[in-house]
Amino acid sequence: MYLRTPKRYSRGQRRSIISLRWLWLWIITPVVVASGMYLYNNRESYIPQVEGAMSGLLNQAQSSVATAMAPTPLPTENPSTRLASADSAWMRGAIEEAVNIYKGLTDAVPNNVGVHYRLTLGLIMSGKREEALEAAERTVTADPYDPNAWAIRAMALDWNGRYGEAVASAQRSLELAGQDNIEAQARANAFLAEAYFDLAQYDRALSTANRAIEANPNSYEGYRNRAIIVQNTQFDFEAALQDLQTAYDLAPNLPYIAVDLAVVRSRDDVDAAIALLTEVLDLNPQNVNALLWLGSLYLNSVGDPNQAADYLTRCTDAAPEQISCHYLLGRAQVRTEQYTLAAESFKRAVDLGSTNGYHYWWAGRAQVLLGSCPAATQYLQTGYQIAQESGDEDLIAAYEDQMRSCRLLAEATPEVTEEATTEPEA
Length: 426
Known about the structure:
The protein has helices at 7-10, 20-41, 43-69, 80-91, 95-103, 113-125, 129-142, 147-159, 163-177, 182-198, 202-215, 220-234, 237-250, 255-265, 270-283, 288-302, 305-318, 323-335, 339-351, 357-369, 373-390, 393-405. It is built from 22 helices and no strands. The chain is 73% helix and 0% strand. The protein is mostly helical.
């Protein structure tokens, strides 16, 4: 038995006269052939592009292989050990050692305001004021909302002679400190007081320093800056000594406070001042201010120009741009009759940009001692103008005497002596 298939399903399909497969072959073949001939005839234009593409693929493959075969990167060093070493050096007063470590840590802890703050303060105390200002800017960058960052920036600006900017930076610190952060508030007021003092706004400076101490009785910055103000405006050296001793007791590890204390002590006790400065140098052998004042004390108080020259030579080596070190070294060299060396030291002080009339007088005097009035002429004439502008009658008289001896003025007088131009040192 079978099923019959209806006719309509059993009829076969009609074949088309034209095959679509052959039709596509005839259409595509000429296109492919024409394209191939075009590429062949224009192969100079396409070869560089093909080579570039192949080169890129090859470099990418090589890079992938190199990356796959690269050694495992070493673990990043944990800065905590070095940070602890720096903090330990700072606390015992070895500021130069601490600064060297902090310098290498700023990249590892870019937002640690404490590290940047101490680096800036350490550079200020080491006499590297321009470098300190750069560090102060990085301190603010580390955290623009930290009042301590703006406070140390104020100090760095002030010590670089940019007093108006220092005031603005300290005021910004006060804004950020608010009423609750008493320590930051006191610090900002202390640095603001120092800037006011350097702007000759003495009453405002004193009241601001008092405000710092009232806000925080442990503000060593407030006591130190009030001492500077009282010492130089009221000439109350006893009160200044008391404030500096308090500041030193609060922060015995900071060299700039120790140096300030030694300077005031030297008025009555030179040996104690020298001992204190020597302690600073034991931990900070290149501290410019300690070297400068030791040189000054040995030269003018102890009367030992050779010992003075040793410290002042170290000072010029540590800070070649420090004008006072070159000048005092020249004074020590005159005392030991090393006139050629003295002339070089005074010239260096003048060339560095000194505007001190005494420096020019001694630069001229050294040339006179070498028997060369012509070489002294420029120093004496320039310094004489400075002396006249300052109104220093003793210095004006010393210039006139020296200029007469070189026939730069009408009548001659006996040659002046070294004592004729004695001045407060450093």
